[in-house]
Amino acid sequence: xxxxxxxxxxxxxxxxxxxxxxxxxxxxxxxxxxxxxxxxxxxxxxxxxxxxxxxxxxxxxxxxxxxxxxxxxxxxxxxxxxxxxxxxxxxxxxxxxxxxxxxxxxxxxxxxxxxxxxxxxxxxxxxxxxxxxxxxxxxxxxxxxxxxxxxxxxxxxxxxxxxxxxxxxxxxxxxxxxxxxxxxxxxxxxxxxxxxxxxxxxxxxxxxxxxxxxxxxxxxxxxxxxxxxxxxxxxxxxxxxxxxxxxxxxxxxxxxxxxxxxxxxxxxxxxxxxxxxxxxxxxxxxxxxxxxxxx
Length: 295
Prior knowledge:
This protein is α+β, with helices and mostly antiparallel strands. About 25% of the residues lie in helices and about 25% in strands. The strands form two sheets. Strands 1, 2, 3, 4, 5, 6, 7, 8 and 11 form a nine-stranded mixed β-sheet that branches. A three-stranded antiparallel β-sheet has the order 9-10-12. A hairpin with a 5-residue loop joins β9 and β10. The longest helix is centred in the last third of the chain and has 15 residues, at about 225-240.
């Protein structure tokens, strides 16, 4: 396995150093807490890649969509990182116990990002981690693609795949095509509501490479990454590389102010009920209220 290049080493250092402000996650009721694992690793070129999943089409929420491994908290004592690791074990077979992960890898927690609001009225905390290859010099077979990915099991998801982490800051397709033709990698949509709200929807189209699947591959061999997952990827890459995307984006990392507004109003302070969901109008109103409170 190639050593990480200097850009990747600096990216990991920034993530280790990142310390978010006080979070609203701890004030949410149990039924509104969720966490995801943003799992990074170094590829053969020393660049960072990120592990993603395609959710099963039979699930009740976000069926057939790309997401990080993750899910809801089990109890109030469970930390966001513990939730993310437990769910990753259940969804993709990544052991919670590092001693059970194929040598020479272990999962190193890097940082926890601010909480994001899901349309299903959950507070979702991304936990960024690195598959650290402890043990000095490694053989060419000791790569995530060669020794670990094939051992992961798409238990509760339709597919497991990876993507170049830094590419989520670019609108240009990072993949080399045999015919040298340009493919669609990014498509962005920006909606301006008023002077406070600037909402951007990002779409990325990731080739089905380095993947394990039980079904669900797109006909054009690309997975669509969009919504909250795309926003988390952009923000995590911004924190890691110290760079801004070359396309319009939402600059606020996370939705802590929005969640604080909803907690004060009672909208998110009570247990979640089946069918609870935010509308675009709800999200816009909360964003406006949060922005106004800063003035």
